[in-house]
């Protein structure tokens, strides 16, 4: 019987949630499985992965095949690296103490990278909210100014121009003749 480590989909439409299982390769995707090894939730940032490390390592060591996604998850969690180190002990290249120290070092580095990513995401969220708030305040100030300008009464200043002095009445009275066209 060929055993395969793969994902089994759960969750609702648009919100997937997966169980990492060891199953017979002939079984349906969401069908019967031999052992549940863990869970994978891609909806969170970064994705949440919980698994039984020892049992998963056991299945990898006995030769269970892995789907591409399951292989990526196992590599991310360090199971494939630990398997590589254990195989080095079988060949005589390493000792068990070397395996534990190397894996502990790798795990510490991995956890610090993950924590740095989480911190960076948190800072990005805070700075994005601050920028959005600043832009909203500026937009509201511009709207308030536009409303203030719109609601102020418009006072048109009429320029008072001095009227040119007209001819005196004497000149007008003296010329009763109509101009003739010559």
Describe the protein's architecture and organization.
Strand 1 and strand 2 (15-24) form a beta hairpin. This protein folds into two domains: 3-93, Ribosomal protein S16 (S16 Ribosomal Protein, Chain: A, 2-Layer Sandwich), CATH 3.30.1320; 95-142. Helix 1 (53-61) crosses helix 3 (79-91). By secondary structure, it is of the alpha+beta class. The mean pLDDT is 84. The longest helix has 56 residues, at 96-151. It has helices spanning 53-61, 68-77, 79-91, 96-151, 169-174, and strands spanning 3-12, 15-24, 35-41, 48-51, 65-66. It has a five-stranded mixed sheet with strand order 4-3-2-1-5.
Task: Give me the count of strands.
Answer: 5
Q: Describe the biggest sheet?
A: 5 strands, mixed
Domain tally? 2
Helix-residue proportion: 40-55%
Shape assignment = elongated
Give the key terms:
182 residues; S16 Ribosomal Protein, Chain: A; five-stranded mixed beta sheet
Layout of helices and strands:
Elements: E1 3-12, E2 15-24, E3 35-41, E4 48-51, H1 53-61, E5 65-66, H2 68-77, H3 79-91, H4 96-151, H5 169-174
Parallel strand pairs: 1-5
Antiparallel strand pairs: 1-2, 2-3, 3-4
Summarize this structure briefly.
By secondary structure, the protein is an alpha+beta fold. The chain has helices spanning 53-61, 68-77, 79-91, 96-151, 169-174; strands at residues 3-12, 15-24, 35-41, 48-51, 65-66.
């Amino acid at each position: 019987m060929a055993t395969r480590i793969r994902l089994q989909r759960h969750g609702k439409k648009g919100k997937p949630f997966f169980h990492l299982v060891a199953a017979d390769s002939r079984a349906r995707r969401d069908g019967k499985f031999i052992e549940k090894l863990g869970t994978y939730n891609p909806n969170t940032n970064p994705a949440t992965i919980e698994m039984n490390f020892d049992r998963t390592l056991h299945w990898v060591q006995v030769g269970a095949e892995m789907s591409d996604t399951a292989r990526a998850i196992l590599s991310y969690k360090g199971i494939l690296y630990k398997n590589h180190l254990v195989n080095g002990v079988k060949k005589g290249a390493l000792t068990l103490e070397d395996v534990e120290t190397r894996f502990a070092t790798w795990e510490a580095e991995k956890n610090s990278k993950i924590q740095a990513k989480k911190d960076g995401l948190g800072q990005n969220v805070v700075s994005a909210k601050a920028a959005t708030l600043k832009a909203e305040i500026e937009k509201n100030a511009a709207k308030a100014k536009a409303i203030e300008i719109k609601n102020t009464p418009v006072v048109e200043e009429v320029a008072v121009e001095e009227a040119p002095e007209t001819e005196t009445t004497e000149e007008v009275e003296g010329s009763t003749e109509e101009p003739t066209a010559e």
